[in-house]
Write a structure and sequence with these properties.
Layout lengths: L11 H5 L6 H16 L21 H7 L17
């Protein structure tokens, strides 16, 4: 299986290569991410799968299809101390 890609880091050609995305949607993801990053919040544009639905044209069906293909940054607040 191919390595999962991070939509917070991938360029549009890498995103466009995913089966359910095309060039237009891949570019929309990158445009959204760049606008988010320009706000310098320190948080990634896409912290989890459902964040992709903020991009116009991406809905539940698309996110379900993308789930096995993408990886997202670990969120420290979700990591529990095993003690």
């Amino acid at each position: 299986m191919a390595t999962r890609i991070d939509p917070n880091k991938a360029d549009w050609p890498a995103l466009a290569a995913l089966p359910v995305l095309g060039e237009k949607m891949a570019k929309a993801i990158v445009t959204y991410r760049e606008a988010h990053d320009a706000q310098a919040t320190g948080e990634p544009a896409f912290g989890e799968l459902n964040d992709l639905m903020q991009v116009k044209g991406i809905g539940k069906a698309t996110t379900r299809a993308l789930e096995p293909l993408l990886v997202f940054p670990e969120r420290p607040e979700l990591i529990r101390d095993p003690k």
